[in-house]
Each structure stands twice: as C-alpha cells, then as structure tokens.
Amino acid sequence: MSATQQPAMGESSIHPAGESTNGTKEWQEMLETEKAGLVERVYDLERQVLEHKDEIVCLKSTLADVLRRLATIDNAYEHSTSGSGRGGTGTVAGGGGGLGASHSTAATTAGQGGIGDSVAAGSGQNSLSSKSFRFSRNTLTRLNSSVEEKRFGRVPSRVTSSPSRIKTTLAQKAIHYSNGSLHSDSLSSHSISPAPSPSPKQPNASTNAHHALLASSGMGKRWSSTGDFISTPGSPSGTGSTGSMSRFSAKSLLNLSGHSSRQGNSHPYVQRKNDDDEYVKLYISGRPIVIHIPEAQLPTYDLTKVQPAPNRRLRLDWAYGYRGKDCRSNLYQLPTGEMVYFVAAVVILYNMDEHTQRHYLGHTDDVKSLAVHPNKLLVASGQCGGTEGRESLPHILIWNSVSLATLNQIGCGEFTGAINCLSFSRADSGNILAAIDDSPDKIISIWDWQKKEGGRKITETKCSVDTVVAVEFHPLDKGQIITIGKNHIAFWSLDQHGMLYKRMGVFESFEKPKYVTAISFTQTGDVVTGDSSGNLAVWKRGTNVISRFLKKVHEGPVFTICALRNGGFVTGGKDGLLLLFDDALHMKADQIVEEHFGAVRVVAQGKGSQLLIGTTKNCILSGDFTLSLVPIVMGHTDILWSLSTHPQVAQFVTGGKDRLLQLWDSLSHSVVWSKDIGEPIHSVQIANGGEVVVVGGGTGRWSVFDIVTRELLATYTDGQDVIQCMQFSPDGNLLALGSKDNCIYIYQCTKVPHRFSKIGKCTGHSSFISHLDWSKDSQVLRSNSGDYELLYWNPTLCRQITSQSTVKNLEWATQNCSVCFETIGIWPENFDGTDINSVCKDGEEQFLVSADDFGKIRLFSFPASQPKSLSHSYRGHSSHVTAVQFMHDGVRLLSAGGLDTSVLQWRVV
C-alpha cells in the first residue's frame, strides 16, 4: 500500500466509526422518545380501562337496584294477597313465632340458573341464618329471561380472643336461640343479620337434594357479578326456606327444653317456702329482696310455670347516629343511591332521596371498619371483640349490599384486637382482602375471602409497632399494598407464593411527620398522602420516595383525601376546611365546616358534584363547594345517659355526657333542635303537658327548658350529687327527683309550667336512687336504689310506707323499677344487679322491655312475674343500653346506647 493511500485509508477507517457513534445516539434518543410515548399511551389505556370499569360497575349496580325494587314490589304484592295477619304463625322461612307468614327470609326456588340460582341461597348445617330476596316463580322467570346472573353502672369489659371464654354448650345455644338473638323477624324488615346455627340435626333428603341442586348450578363462583346476590351453600348466611323453618322449629324446641329442664319447685334466686306465703324472695347478687304477691295473683302464682314470650316481635325501624369520632374510611356512596356507614353494631344503608334506611345486623359488637368491593355491591365490615362466646370474637363479615345476605365470616378466632382497617384488592377485581388487627403487634393479614367458609388466610405479618390508620391496595399494580400510620408509610408487595415484602417510605430532606394520616391515588397510579402537620406528599408510582411535597395545606392534621371522578381531589382536616384540588394538585376552591359539627373526618363523593362529609362530632353533612353544607345525620359524641318521650306527639329528647340536649322527631327521623347546656346531662323528663323539659345535672342542679324555643326557664338545686332520675305523677301535680345522695326530692307543680314548689325529701335508701314509678292514682311512689332496695313512699308527706301489704295491689302508671313483682322474670340466674339498666312497659300493658349491660333489648309479655320468663332478644347496640322507653302510641320503642352514643328506634310488629 502506498504512502499516499494511508491517510485516505485512515480517514476511511475513522469515518465509519464516527457515523456509528452518531447513529447510536440518534437510535437511543428515538428509543427514549418511543418509550416515553409508550408510557403515556399505557397510562392513557389504564385510565380508559378504569373509566370503562366504572361504567360497568354503575350498570351492574343500577341493575341491582332495579332487582331490589322489583323484589320489594313483589313482596308487597304477595303480602297483600297472602292474607296472613300479624299474629299468624309463620309458614315460610323467617316467620318464626308470632310473625306473619308473608315475609320469607330466603327464596326457595333452586332451578332456573342465573338470578334464580343466586336468589335461592342454600344453607349448610352449620351456616349462619340470613334473610334474602324472595321472588315469585313468575318474577324469577321474567328476570332469568333477561339476566344471566345484607348508664347507670359499670361498662362491661371487652374480650379479645381468649378461647377460655367461649361458650358452646347445647343448653347455652338453646337459651341464646330462644330469644331470637341477633335478628329482628318482621313482616317488612330489611334488617338482615346472621345468627349462629342451632344444634346439629339430621338433614332430610329434600334438603340434601336442594343443596346438591344449588351446588351444581355454579353458586361456588367468585362474587364479582350483579347476579351474585346471595351466599353460596354452606356460607354463614345462606339458608333456604326449608332450612329456615327447621331452624325456627328447632329453636323453639330448644327454647322450651332449655328452660323446662331447669324448672323445679323453686329457683336458686327466687324462693317461696310455702304455697301459702304471700311473698317471694328475689336474690340479686346474693341479697334477698322481699316482694309481695298481689292478691289477684295468689291463687294461681306458681314458680314452676313458664311464661311464654309475646307473640309479636320488634323490628329495627331507624338508627340515629354515626361513628366518626374515632373511625376512618367509614362513609361510602353506593351506585344504587344509598350511602353506607355505621354506628354501634349496625351498618346503615341510607337513601337520602327516599329518606329510608336498611340495616345490616350481622355484627355482635362495635363495627370499627368498612370497605366496599370494586364491584360496588359487596361490603366488608370488621368488628371488635365482645363478651359472649365465639360469635363475639373480632371478625370480618362479607355481605351483599342489595340482599343484605352474609356471604362469609372471616377470621373468627384469628384476631386478637379490633379490625380497624380493611381494603379489597382493586387491580384483580377484589379477589383478596387486607385487614389490620389492632393488637399490640398491629398484624396485617391477607385473605382469600371467597375460599370456603371462613375464608383462607394467605399470609400475615407484623405491620408496625405503632398505630396503623389505613391500609389500601394499589388500584393499578397487582399485589401492591400501602399502610400508613404513626411515624411511617410502608409499601408492601405480595408475591405469587403469598409472601409479603415491605419497603419503608423515605422522606429524605422532607419533613418527616409524626403521623401519616390520609391516603389516596392519582389516575396514573401515584400515591398521595396527608400528614399530621397539614402537608401533602406525592409518591411516584412504583417508588418509595417523594416526588412532590405541598407544605402546610391544612392547619393541623389532614384526616382524609377523596379522589374525585374527574381526577381531582378533596382534602379535609382537623381545621374544618374542605379544599378542592385539580388533577395536578392545584387548589381551586375551599369550604368551611361549621365548628359545632366538628372537624372533617372523611369525605366521599356522592351523586354528581355532591360531597358527603363525616365529622369528628358524629355528623354527616351533604353539599359541595358552591352551596352550604346541610346536616343529614346528627348524633351524640359521648356517653348517652337518658331519654324521654313526648306524651302527646312523636318526639323525644336525649341527653348525655357531651352536654347536648337534643329534641328529635321520630317520624321525620331528624333533630328538631340541639342545645349545649354547659354540663353533663344525667336525666331528662318531658312534663305531662309537653310544654317543658326537665334536665338533671351532675351537681344537684336541675333545669327547666322550653320545648319549643329551647330557652332556659328556671334552675333549681337539690343536694350536691347527680340527679339520677325524675318522674312526673300521672295527674301532673307532682315531680319526684331521685338523687345520687340517696334522697328523693318531691316538688309540687304549679300552673306555670316551669315553676315548682318544694314539698320535701324522702330519706331511707342506703344507696343512690336508680328508678321511680308513680301509682296510677298519683298517691304512692315506689323506688329502686343502687343496692336493689324496693321502697314505697307517701309523696305528700315524704314518708316511707313500711307495710308492703298495703301497696301490693296498686296499679302503676309506669314501669321503670327493675326490681318489683312485675319484673321478677327478667332476671336471669347469676346476673349482677347492675346488669339490667332500664325497663319499661307500653301503654296497653302488653309488653315489658328490658335493657342490659350487654347491648341487648329483650321483649317480654307483661307482667314478667314468673322466674325466667321467656323473651325475644334483639341486638343493635354495642355498649350497655342505658334507657328504653315506648313512644306515646305504644307501637314504637326507643333505646339509648351508652358508649356507642346511638339511639335505636324499634317497631312492634
């Protein structure tokens, strides 16, 4: 090769390399551009998929609502044509006892497939009872052609998961069932709740065939379609009508055998030495109370007789209140038009447009958490531990929001604390469920909730040593879970083998808050959190670091972040502010919540631009950023001690430790007015004329308020202790006040409703006064005290009547005293004297109702003078029930919960 050619060759050899380098750079730039464009297209595709999913969910939910309404119309039609009376004997499932037969608790049609299969929910031998839709055969045929597819005294202690406290004997189950516990049977009740199955019985051939038909119809599929209304065979709630009939029959037989087997010539706690004795001795907490038998009862009174339960029942009509003071993420709008929230042991589905409530009563104690399935039809609710055996251990219930049927009970015996956080997976159509056990170790557990009865626990691990306030599945990334709480945010990954891996959030140079208090997601999958310092942070999808930080958005903690359908956000905090952000987190508007409603606890998007706001003072408000916020649910915020019904109209007053005196209307189910009187309220009473309300305070002071204007009219003082109870005489001339100083103060009523003239005080009790009753002629007063004494008084002389024989035949205007002849039968054996807090009777003296420390309302026949009188038992409260009282019409009953701060309105059916 020549020397002159070398440079040329050198240049030639170098030039291609330069071209190669430049080409590589251009190629990389092109790849990066394509990659960025691809990412944008993927994000856009994910957004479109989510939009389509929402549309499908809305269509499914609208169909579900149509089916619910069809079922209601169909039931109403069958009720009108069945000819069954209220007091008739039930001939279909759910009509136990004296209920009419026309309301079936489960459809019996097993064929047809699709909706027919879903509605015909079979029951395993050990399943929990439930109620479901009931369609006629013609209705099912039509639907299947177009569609293929629920105080006074101490506060009872909680238990966690101690197996030693579980009671499972047959006798105990019999007694439990004899009172109809955990459910309200009625002609038109929508309050559906599961109950433990009765004792095992041999299945008949028809039942087995029925179950086999259901099993072959595909009922074991996953619950993700609108056709999945009722639980699978063997689930805790599934029951056909045959199963229900046998359950109620077995319950009645167990009821009788459970009680009659213990009958003898006397009872350990009620004794009558001779048949000629005119008195009995009632032993409460070992103390004998002598109670004289009325002369009319002497010839026939026999301790061995069993007094039957009344032939009518109670049905939960309305639940007043909301739990926002210490719970989060417990308010949701369902596409069917109902909002779902909870108070006490009741999950409420409220339709604001129709002003109607339905109630899920499957829980046995405080509901603490709520989660809605991605299909918007199924709901998971978690509770804390109660006091009565296995059924009251902390657990999760999965149920259908249309039929209110329980699909599965998860984790009974697996949790040691309350379930305070729940979340369905979102990227895989809700196949799994995450739960946080509020135990000392704060355990996170993952459940395949559709696997068999009780679900299958995939895994669990210790979550944090500190408080966890929320758990959420990532909406786009399968198996990704985020937990937040004190001093942390954690990003979890669940692999295909069921193992959980955790990465802690890194705050780097940003301010690390004491609490991460709220969480939501952008449409592109980024995580948005709020903290206790009022800051917002954005965590890039797939990372554990902050990509954007908005400082001091709120003054104080951010309690909630609600992702809107248009991609924007609404935040709410302790400062009472609602802030509206667009999808780029630029603030667009604000709204203030009035201070007396409390701070913003949770925000949910309602219909259109409407917002639902739950507050820390147990209120739910409705509105948006252009209109003022309107309260739609109000309640008390601390221990509720007293209630009194109006003598002429459908109103009642309540008062409690939160110092709020509230007048309610039981027909419109709303608060007429609310007033902070400046001190805790221990007793209330509406005067016979209905013009004034008398309120007993904590330092011997009692006040009189105008019932219309709520104006304070007068104040009086007697002693220096709590005014525990008060009662007007039937003729309206006298007022008796029972104090914690063991005295009863008697006042003369004047022509001016708020002016009273003191007559004197009755002394003789050795403990605080707990209950007062007047005789119908207003001449005699009787009283109970904290040590279970029963004393009688001449009120005009303020002297004790020591001879019970002179007053034993009197008729009493009210039935407030829990220790007397009429209430002997309400005391179970081995009860503490403080366990029954309140009793009452209706105006026609057909029913006697008792309220106890275990959250139960019991309905007896009046008088319940036989030991261990049979009753119907109802649950809805999760705390000691401090007061019960019938309305003036005798058809509606009100009960006040203590710590659960709720008022429940029941109807006699």
TrEMBL record:
One GO cellular component term noted in the UniProt record for this chain: mitotic spindle
SUPFAM superfamilies: Quinoprotein alcohol dehydrogenase-like (SSF50998), WD40 repeat-like (SSF50978)
Keyword Repeat: yes
WD repeat windows: 633-665, 762-794, 874-909
GO terms under biological process: microtubule cytoskeleton organization
Compositional bias annotation for Low complexity: 181-194, 231-244
GO molecular function: microtubule binding
Subcellular compartments: Cytoplasm, Cytoskeleton
Superkingdom as given in the UniProt entry: Eukaryota
InterPro entries hit by this protein: Beta-prop_EML-like_2nd, Beta-prop_EML_1st, Elp-1-like_TD, HELP, Quinoprotein_ADH-like_sf, WD40/YVTN_repeat-like_dom_sf, WD40_repeat_dom_sf, WD40_rpt
Region described as Disordered: spans on this chain: 1-24, 181-207, 225-246
Family: Belongs to the WD repeat EMAP family.
Official protein name in the record: HELP domain-containing protein
